[in-house]
Amino acid sequence: MSHACAPIGVFDSGLGGLSVLHAIRAQLPHESIVYLADSGYAPYGEKTDAFIRARSAALTRWLCAQRAKMLVVACNTATTHAIASLRSTFALPIVGVEPGVKPAALASGSGVVGVLATAATLRSDRLRTLLATHANHCRVVCQAGHGLVELIEQGHVAGPEMHALLTRYLEPMAQAGADTVILGSTHYALLVPTIRTLFGDRFTLIETGSAIARRVDMLLTEHGLHADDDHAASLRLCSTALDPVPRQALARVATPLAGLSGQATADVEMVDIAMTDADFERADAIGDLGAPTAPLCG
Question: What is the mean pLDDT of each run of 10 residues along the chain (298 residues)?
């Protein structure tokens, strides 16, 4: 396999990154992808910063072993807390995701913007910097989406429990005058139809899958890594979940992305990815500063 025909590695704490995967496949249909759902350790939003950095390093090391030519961290929480350390440790192009603060501030007519994100993203310096840079003229209403990822990982993107949580989290934003809501987790992009059912067109919903796909395209060009147009693209789905329910949910959501139809269902490979003491030591040493270290793969 030539390096250009090697896959793009994409990881998320679970199913949420499928929204990014969908955008990448639409933009780059000739690229092969290995998608890694770390559902065995989801949700990341309640984990410590050091754990998120160590876990992200372990997943990246595994994707490097699968010959990934590029990494997409399709998780807002992992991007916020780990991407600097990943970029200083691994020698491959790395693309992250972050809340769409700038487009939200530009889209808002009322000047009130809601942010629905994980607790870890909401406490991050990166989000504070984005808000100060792009939305200092807006009133921002933040809400941690406790429980949303857990339901999505079980395959529940609608239903009474999901409806109750979304109403509890978004109704105060509506009452505060928000006309735009940032979906600050790739998981939450899967809830757009449900939010529309509950709130109609009350909010402009901001998610960044298409922007990430364009960035991936740009970096592939910059590094000369585009697959040939006649390359037979493949999609490999992997999960760390021991529980079959998240794996079944991943297969169900990903089936249309795999180009399957009828009764066919996407295959999901269960993988065991252990963290090492070195991952935690490096996470503690590097922190969010991203101090340079020797690349682990290239």
Answer: 83 94 93 96 89 95 97 94 92 94 97 95 92 96 95 92 98 98 94 97 95 96 91 92 93 77 76 84 57 37
- Give pLDDT, residue 46: 83
Instruction: Give me the catalytic one of 5, 64, 75, 138.
Output: 75
Q: Which residues have C-beta within 8 Å of that of residue 155, sequence separation ≥ 6?
A: 245, 246, 248, 249, 252, 253
The answer on whether 76 is annotated among ligand-binding residues is yes
Q: Nearest Cα to 195, choosing from 106, 116, 119? A: 116
Q: Does 2 carry a binding-site annotation?
A: no
Tokens 């913007």: give the residue. Answer: 113
- C-alpha–C-alpha distance, residues 71 and 9, integer Å: 5
CA Rg value for the chain: 19
In the chain, what are the domains? 3-97+209-286 (3.40.50.1860), 101-206 (3.40.50.1860)
Q: What are phi and psi of 184, to 5 degrees?
A: -85, 25
12 carries a ligand binding annotation: yes
Taking the C-alpha atoms of residue 186 and residue 219, their distance in angstroms, rounded to an integer, is 21
75 is catalytic: yes
Residue 31: partners with Cβ closer than 8 Å, 6 or more residues away: 7, 8, 24, 25, 220, 226, 227, 231, 233
Q: How far apart are CA 1 and CA 67, in angstroms?
A: 9
Rounded to whole angstroms, the Cα distance separating 134 from 295 reads 33
121 is in an annotated binding site: no
> If you write DSSP's letter for every residue of 81-116 in order, what string do you get?
HHHHHHHHH--S-EEE----HHHHHHH-SSSEEEEE
Q: How far apart are CA 73 and CA 9, in angstroms?
A: 9
Residue 46: φ, ψ to 5°: -100, 0
